[in-house]
Amino acid sequence: MREVMSGVNSDATQHEPRQNDPRQYRINRRRLLLSAAGGLGALTVSAGAGWWARRDPAHGPRIWSTTAPGRQIVLPAEPQASLYVSGYDGRVSALDPRTGAVRWSKAVSTPEIADTPSGLPLAVGDGVVCVTTPTRVHVLAAESGEARWEVPVPDWRDVPWEQGPAVGSGGVLAPYGTTLRSYDVADGSLRWSGPPNSSGVPVVAGDTVYTPGRPTGLRAFDIHSGEQRWEQNAVRAVQVKGGPAVRQGVAYLADCDGPEMRNPAVLALDATTGRVRWRRAQPRMLTSCPPVVTDGTVCLLSGNALTVLDADTGDTRWTATTPVGLGRGESSMTAADGTAYVGTNDDRLYAYDLATGRLRWQDEPEHLRSDTEFTRISLAATGTAVYRASRTGVHALGAVPSA
Length: 403
Description:
By secondary structure, the protein is mostly beta strands. The protein contains one helix and 36 strands. 6% of the residues lie in helices and 43% in strands.
């Protein structure tokens, strides 16, 4: 495995992860929630450290690795596209997916960086990279990292940190609080604003933007005019960490009943009309990450259970028990090219055969990291390559993607 320590066209060096960050973040609601969410993970680390020390670490098919922390990664489907990474320090970078070399790296200039310990949300599309901070929308050129435009927005420090932007059909969708705003991707001019009581997780598919309502329902809007096309109130409370996955005219989403996350289910809706095609109850709460749809399946991760459903019928194909991370934070899941991947919050990665649920390979770090900062694992996959981002860096595994 090669360590990628430098790149080209970067206006700053990449930083090693720090165990003790000297910056003192201001205490706010999101910070308190993050600390509470990671408490159980910290106890698990203490109890499981002995086992970790005694284990024989397994190494998967590693391609390359960097030491620059990554909060979120996005890999567009276009040929020759970069792997885009947002960090915890306000930086956005573009990496070569084949080698990990830095194509460009830019700092997003904003006074709120020290107050965003969970990192900056990221979206890529239409030739631009968009990141949102508590008070601004920033848009960069995807090819060079050059700043295109930025606009101020109302402060959203007191709303959930999962909200993030979306890009598509010539628009940049940026949720702030309970209002959705659409900006022209070319110049940042405001296209439309509204409606109220929308959540912060828009999903763009074609010329439609889908967003969960608050507190219930799923809505679809024309991305150009903002006109509402339909609302499905049979949906109770869409999973807060992600909106629907839209594939081939169907919107798939995880649904839980109210803030207690009771009666979890998975729904398939007609993406054009909002009509319910099927609904399947699930035995576990669906709180880990949004569903992933690929190869005729719907993949779900909840706690230590990976479940795969038939996309046409909703019938369960298989369920596998996955490891629980020993760190503080959340696991993640993605799927591509016949493989489902689960990344745990202690930097382990597991690859499952999508057809059978059989474990194909697993990858583990040499040592249990001492950094207990709350972290999310971000995954992206294409072909037989999978990319994992966390506070320890960005890692590529599997097989090198074709040029």
